[in-house]
Amino acid sequence: MAVILDVLVQLGQLLLVLLLAPLLTGYVRKIKARLLRRQGPPLIQPYRDLLKLIRKEVVLADNASWVFRVAPYVIFATTWVAAALVPTFATGLMLSPAADLIAIVALLGSARFMLALAGLDVGTSFGGIGSSREMMIATLAEPAMLMIAFTVSLLAGSTQLSSVATFMQGPDVGLRVSLAMALVGLIMVAIAENARIPVDNPATHLELTMVHEAMILEYSGRHLAVIELAASLKLLLYMSLIGCVFVPWGVAVAGQDLTVYAGSVVVYGFKLAIGGFLLAVFETAIAKMRVFRVSDFLGAALMLGLLAALLLFVSRSV
Amino acid sequence: MDRFALDVAHLFAGGLVLVSFMLLYQDRMFSLLNIFALHALVVSLSVAWQAHIQSAPHLYITAAIALIVKAIVIPVVLHRIIVQLGIHRDIDTVVSIGQTMLGGIALVALSILVMHPITSAAGTLVREDLAFALSVILLGLLMMVSRRNAVSQVIGFMSIENGLILAATGAKGMPLVVEISVAFSILVALIVIGIFLFRIRERFDSVDIHALDRFRGEQP
């Protein structure tokens, strides 16, 4: 019985992230529109978009190879698995032993690899610049992400997200400047990885600046739907990651009854709402930077990660 | 000493290193001045906290001097000097900001590696403070060598002095007389540097110190 419940809760987590992801995207768009004093599309608009895209036919370029057709599904699958591994409302679920920070970075890395390949596959110039810029961002964002992962896991003594979240809830954490740096660094990486405003603008198709949109320019129909869904999932993933490492309160421990889970799902939704609101305010308040400033921005994130790891060695105890 | 006190001291000292990096990251003169004011504010907070936990009341005076002189007077005066100079307000760097940051990380690692073994007998607080103070000093020196602009060199010089204060408070405080005279010598240095900036500006129409290189001796 307990095993069945565990499986059900894990499946619930898988479905929860999948269903919540478009809502989060719609919510951020709505808040941004309201901040600009526009009405904005309704919250469920992303679901409608996805349904419509799925029903439309796929238009393929003549010289598109199998990579182009396979890539959306690989991207979606890896991103979904990664998003389902991050503890959202409960720690210690069935898949938690696999929920390793480094594994999540690797899953996202393979998704990005496929996306860049797909951008190059058709051979248009936009896909090419998109892929090359994405790779430039990745070469800086991935080491920064890994340094932050090292900092957190050095402190918690484990790279498993469940144990990290449990450790962060405990009294042993204290007030640490390393954690603050890791948080700021992680937010910077998350902004860059999700193609949010100072780095890339998800709402425009301006040739000079687009990164993510340039790579998926050739996609249509259900391929595009799957890629859009993966992008929403990635945003949800980073928010849950920040939530579970730095604001771990209200996360249930596995093996409790369903009312506790329900409560923690509500808390999780609340965290996402706050995170999405802050993201929208930040994006509205800041201007997009030039592509060549991005390396400085991400260099600062890498620097924060390195510094956080270094400062751990002089602090009280490691 | 209880853990909370140590944690707060660690937070302020680590924050100071972070603000030093923020100084390296700036490319506008006025934002550089603002960050320098923040640097001085963090120093004075750190010193005040150590005065509290070491119960050494004379350190409060050090903190007050740092707050008034370096967080308020010097940024305001430099701000006015820059306005009067009427120079362009971007900061030229010798090497790019990213490379400077990487160099800075290496310097922090170096100072931790140097300070940790030789202070193994001392308490945690002193070890931390000395390692962080050495990093702040080295970062200030890095800023002085990697910026071509005389104003940012002044800021680098002043941030070195903040690092020295941090080192001195960690090591059970230096005599108050020394601290006061250092603060005044900083003020005198500010006046001298101010006059000097105007002279450079008059002669070369910019404060790029590379214009001075022609007047060095021993050149081929």
Question: Care to give the gist of this entry?
Answer:
The complex is a heterodimer of chains A (318) and B (220). Chain A contains 11 helices and 2 strands; from the N terminus they run H-H-H-E-H-H-H-H-H-H-E-H-H.
Question: How would you explain this protein's 3D organization?
Answer:
The complex is a heterodimer of chains A (318) and B (220). Chain A is mostly helical. Helices cover 69% and strands 1% of the residues of chain A. Chain A has 11 helices and 2 strands. In chain A, strands 1-2 form a two-stranded parallel sheet. In chain A, helix 4 (101-121) runs antiparallel to helix 5. The mean pLDDT of chain A is 89. Chain B is mostly helical. Chain B contains 7 helices and no strands. In chain B, helix 2 (29-53) runs antiparallel to helix 3 (58-85), helix 3 packs parallel to helix 7 and helix 6 packs antiparallel against helix 7 (176-204). The A-B interface holds A 174-178, 180-181, 295-296, 299-300, 303-304, 306-307, 310-311, 313-316 and B 3-4, 6-8, 10-11, 14-15, 17-18, 21, 25, 97-98, 101-102, 104-105, 108-109, 112, 116, 124, 127-128, 131-132.
Features:
heterodimer; A: 318 residues; mainly alpha; B: 220 residues; 7 helices; 0% strand; globular
The biggest beta sheet of chain A reads: 2 strands, parallel
- The share of residues in helices of chain B is over 70%
The low-confidence parts of chain B are none
Number of domains of chain A: 1
Helix content of chain A: 55-70%
Q: Counting H and I runs of at least 4 residues, what is the number of helices of chain A?
A: 11
Protein structure class of chain A: mainly alpha
Q: Which pair of chains has the greatest number of interface residues, and how are they split between the two chains?
A: A-B, 21 and 28 residues
Q: What value does the Rg of chain B take, in angstroms?
A: 18 Å
**From N to C, what is the helix and strand string of chain B?**
HHHHHHH
Q: Report the count of strand segments of chain B.
A: 0
